[in-house]
């Protein structure tokens, strides 16, 4: 199976995910627009990161217009798996 991180997101109405997989470069600012999704109740968007040989990705979120959620510059570390994310809280669901 592929080495993936899937994040179900609730927050900005048009969220972008800006991320860096270990050994690679950060996505270009503002990142990648997240896909609309209603697969997980209460979460509005999702995005899957292909980790390749890495075990995690460093992630932050923004609204595409300069407002960032980056844990005060520390970013969020998502290991392989499936998560929900809202307002600074990451919960592994799979």
Comma- or semicolon-separated keywords:
94 residues; globular; five-stranded mixed β-sheet
Question: Can you give a write-up of this model?
Answer:
The protein has strands at residues 4-10, 16-21, 32-33, 35-36, 45-50, 56-62, 68-69, 76-79, 81-86, 89-92. With 94 residues, the protein is an all-beta fold. The strands form two sheets. The chain has a five-stranded mixed beta sheet with strand order 4-5-1-9-10, with no helix packed on it. Strands 2, 3, 6, 7 and 8 form a five-stranded antiparallel beta sheet that branches. The two termini are 14 Å apart.
Shape by Cα distribution: globular
**Helix and strand composition category:** mainly beta
Question: How much strand?
Answer: over 45%
Q: Work out the helix count.
A: 0
Summarize the structure.
By secondary structure, the protein is mainly beta. The protein has strands at 4-10, 16-21, 32-33, 35-36, 45-50, 56-62, 68-69, 76-79, 81-86, 89-92.
